[in-house]
Design brief:
Belongs to the histone deacetylase family. This protein is an alpha/beta fold. The protein has 10 helices and 8 strands.
Length: about 300
């Protein structure tokens, strides 16, 4: 069975006019159940990640100041969110969701987190709507428990996974791959194990060709035991922040490539949703829904 982490706390309200589409975390599970892709039994409410596990991926000084709501004004501005207790608790819960999803993936080959993909969170600071790095925390959990050794993080959000790259920069057991808009945020990129910067306006054909070539290169260099997939849909042509030109079908084909690769290699994987900022919320929900449909089709 496909296990999906979700909690009402994922839908933490933001001030009116805030550009982050928090409502997608409520609408996405509704859409998946409405169309019959999943039912209520597929969802589990995660437990918050423990402080000890958070500290496996994040500096204690940063975590203590974040948890006590003592970030500086400039640090808070960098996250893009107004800091609050509810927001911090939400991030801790999302990280816990990716941890539990990873455990379910070990049993069933795939699991999902309705939220997550918080790849701009560094070991010592937050950026770009990300306070804690859920994939890094989940990766450390799997390794600490001795469940796996080598992890491949595939980050296909339109923005580089700079925080993830920083956290694992000196760790050969985790391969970080980010394919993103070359001229998009963040303007100062970190060094992943493989970075592929795409020009503005990149379309389906070029994108998918580049992705396949990159995956071949990675698998010639690295033999993973587990895949973590950041499946941001801000690569859509309709995205307000993306600047690429993928169609809805192009995003579906992208997701199909990644999920089919995991299935072919027999590797467990988790999917975190990442970004999506199209003007119409229906486009965001449809783009995210596709990866769940594919998970059911390919694995179950």
């Amino acid at each position: 069975m496909l296990h999906i982490a979700w909690s009402p706390e994922y839908c933490h309200p933001l001030p009116t006019g805030h550009r982050f589409p928090m409502e997608k975390y409520e609408l996405l599970p509704q859409q998946l159940m409405y169309e019959g892709t999943v039912d209520e039994s597929n969802f589990f409410k995660p437990k918050p990640a423990s402080e000890g596990l958070i500290l496996e991926a994040h500096d204690s000084d940063y975590w203590n100041r974040l948890n006590s709501l003592q970030l500086t004004r400039s640090e808070e501005r960098a996250t893009g969110f107004p800091l609050s207790r509810a927001l911090v608790d939400r991030e801790v819960l999302i990280a816990g969701g990716s941890v539990e999803a990873a455990v379910y993936a070990m049993e069933n080959k795939i699991a999902m987190n309705i939220a997550g993909g918080t790849h701009h969170a560094y070991s010592n600071r937050g950026e770009g709507f990300c306070l804690l790095n859920d994939q890094a925390i989940a990766a450390r959990y799997l390794q600490k428990k001795g469940l796996i050794q080598k992890i491949l993080i595939i980050d296909l959000d339109v923005h580089q996974g700079n925080g993830t790259a920083e956290i694992f920069k000196d760790d050969p057991s985790v391969f970080t791959f980010s394919m993103h808009g070359a001229k998009n945020y963040p303007h100062r990129k970190e060094k992943s194990d493989l970075d592929v910067g795409l020009e503005d306006g990149t379309s389906d054909k070029e994108y998918l060709k580049t992705l396949n070539i990159s995956l071949d290169q990675i698998l010639n260099r690295f033999e993973p035991d587990f895949i973590m997939y950041q499946s941001g849909v801000d690569v859509l042509e309709s995205d307000k922040l993306g600047r690429l030109s993928l169609t809805m079908e192009g995003v579906r084909m992208r997701d199909d490539i990644i999920l089919s690769l995991s299935k072919e290699l027999g590797l467990p994987m988790i999917c975190s949703m990442g970004g999506g900022y199209s003007e119409k919320i229906s486009q965001i929900i449809e783009a995210h829904s596709q990866v769940y449909r594919l998970a059911q089709e390919i694995f179950f």
